[in-house]
Amino acid sequence: MKIEVNGIELFYEKEGSGPPLVLLHGNGEDHFIFDESTELLKRNFTVYRPDSRGHGGSSRTAELHYQDMADDVACFIETLGLDRPVLFGFSDGGIIGLLAASQHPQLLSALIVSGANTEPKGLKPFIYGIFRLLFVFKKDPAIRLMLTEPNITKDELGRIHIPVLVTAGQRDMIRAEHTRLIAEHIPGSRLVILPGESHGSYIVHSRKIAKIIEEAVNEN
Prior knowledge:
220 residues, alpha/beta, Rossmann fold, 8-stranded mixed beta sheet, globular
């Protein structure tokens, strides 16, 4: 399905029944990364899986910015009339979730972010260096995005007043101290570092994240 929001079209899938749950993928991906987890989640939730602008079946744009993506998601939720959904965001999706929750206090009922960062230097230096090299050759707007954004302040994190779970893999490409910083500055948030997991090993085409989401929602 497609919906017009914020001046563009977003492609999305809707499955299941129950309270609304929005799943946001990471950079260079699309909603298909959640195929396996959705098979479980749709038993208890109405699952919405949009493709971010510039990704999947959604509109292409010359530039990509996290603020535009956060505005897209807020408009998506409001246009569909979703009543304070739970939002799960992976990587770039987590960044979008942090912005949306900070700027729209009544938009969401709960937020779960995995492998998110609030500034480019939240990436491990080696990973940041790889993306810089890739951009030299590919000039991809999605790579430029990771090198120049986000720029989320501690004050912005402090404006989030809904239940929040912050997760990362033990071998994540996000610096562990940066993940801890995010959790420390969101009032009342919980932090879980998953042993043995990488940035997306427990999320991309994995059912593991479904259990984490369900447990987080049930604890709220």
